[in-house]
Amino acid sequence: MKIVNVNTVIDRDKLSPLQWLVFALGFLVFFCDGLDTGIIGFIAPSLLDDWGITKPELAPVVSAALIGMSIGAIISGPLADKFGRKKVIITTTITFSIFTILCGFASSTQELTIYRFLTGIGLGAAMPNISTIVSEYMPLKRKAFLTGLAGCGFMLGISCGGVLSAYLLESLGWAKVIIIGGALPLLLVVALIFALPESTQYLIKANENAKAQKILEKIQGYAFTDPVTLKLAQAELKNDESPVKQVLGKHLWSSSMLWLCCFMSLLVFYLLTSWMPTILKTAGFTTQQFSLIAAIFPFGGVIGATVMGWYMDKLNPTIVIKYSYLIAFILFIVAGFVSSNVLFLGITIFLIGAMLAGAQSSLLPLSALTYPSSCRAVGVSWMHGIGRIGAIIGAFFGALIFTFNLELSGLFYILAIPTFISFIALSLKVLREKSKVNAQTKVEEIA
Fold first, then answer.
1. Which are the contacts of 447, defined by CB distance < 8 A and separation ≥ 6?
2. How far apart are CA 62 and CA 46, in angstroms?
3. What angle do CA 129, 390, 374 make, to 5 degrees?
4. b/e per residue, 187-217, with b = 16+ CB within 10 A?
5. Do the Cβ atoms of 367 and 380 come closer than 8 Å?
């Protein structure tokens, strides 16, 4: 009986049609996730005027989805390792789609808060799992780049939410805009059900070798002529320890640094995406102006994540992302100095998006590369879930900004601090990895 290494089939020089399909579906899930995540920030100014409520009263609505996303991300990892990536992705996409639509029919902040919380559970659970399955289908040489490129769909989704709001908000109203945003993922669900394959690594560990073999035959374009035994790479072999024990044991240091980095990064990211339109409106911008300017930030992330993904496959991926946070820190200081100039501010916000939002998007493929498949779903989703706590704090802090009467420049100086902490966290991760490599080299030299 012939032994076939799964990675040998997947690590092709040229992607097969099935691998491109997984990439495309992953990109679209990310896009819908970003659209329904960011849409609340763009409709917030219109919602404030329509309901006649204060900005602090809107804070629970803005942060409710983020709380749900944290919970969804944390619980989805173990569920995906038990029931499969595909089932979790489909179920959660349906969840955030339906509850986003229901948001358009809400008649009070309490009702809208509940719908956004349930939307958040679906949003938070879908993203780390689609990132995991995309990474498991991409060849090793281009894994970081292609996984990161698929993740750009999230930033593009947020940007499209801004464009959608800019041109439809005044004519249709906030309710119809959010309903449109919620209806799009339902169309995608049909494609996911019939076209998205399950992770081959998951199938093999679940002893469903026949299904895994059919998928691998589709990737290589022909059937195996002899009976085969499918084998995972040594790092991917089934581990007797539970995924949770692996993440909190062998991978604890890397996990801790990823959690800290993601926490600080999402604090800044969601403060800006949730409140920037309202902040800019308060500063005197028109609806079209603040929607388009706010959309520049995540769109910069699309460019940044694409470039970073390419370099992550060529260089140490952690080092690439850590220096992106350092540049973002410097850019926040620059933004404080140019905040009174609309043109320079717009350019700086775009560059911050390229560095900060690009790095944030790249954390998903970085975490997928950090963990073996035996605990990958838990590792990626827990980083995402714990990071979401930072997003919640960012959303609440955004509401408090208006009570502090901070100038725009002061806000940028404050946001530079957590950005620098993200740089420090990844720097510590790199130092630990280097010390492990040096220790291993010494052991080999002695042997």
1. none
2. 14
3. 30
4. ebbeebeeebbbbbbbbbbbeeeeebbebbe
5. yes
Burial of 262 (0-12, 13-18, 19+ CB in 10 A): buried
Q: Give the Cα separation of 366 and 353 in Å (integer).
A: 18
Q: Which two tokens stand for residue 371?
A: 């963990």
Query: Is the CB of residue 228 less than 8 Å from the CB of residue 382?
Result: no
- Vertex 321, ends 320 and 325: CA angle to 5°? 125
E strand intervals along 196-329: 228-231
What is the rounded CA–CA span in Å between residue 352 and residue 300?
A: 7
Q: What sign does the dihedral 258-263-268-269 (CA atoms) show?
A: positive
User: Residue 53 and residue 47: Cα distance in Å, rounded?
Assistant: 8
In contact, 21 and 195? CB cutoff 8 Å = yes
Q: CA 61, CA 116: separation in Å to the nearest integer? A: 7
Tens-of-pLDDT digits for all 447 residues of the chain? 677 777 788 887 788 999 999 999 999 999 999 888 888 877 877 888 888 887 777 778 877 888 888 888 888 877 887 888 899 999 999 999 999 999 989 888 899 999 999 999 999 888 888 988 998 898 888 887 888 888 888 888 887 887 777 777 777 888 888 898 889 999 999 999 999 999 888 888 878 888 888 888 888 888 777 777 777 765 555 556 777 788 887 788 888 899 999 999 988 887 887 777 777 777 666 766 666 777 788 778 888 888 888 888 888 888 999 999 999 999 999 988 887 777 788 888 889 989 998 898 888 788 878 887 777 778 888 887 888 788 778 777 766 766 677 777 788 888 899 999 999 999 998 888 777 666 566 555 555
H or E stretch at 4: strand 2-5
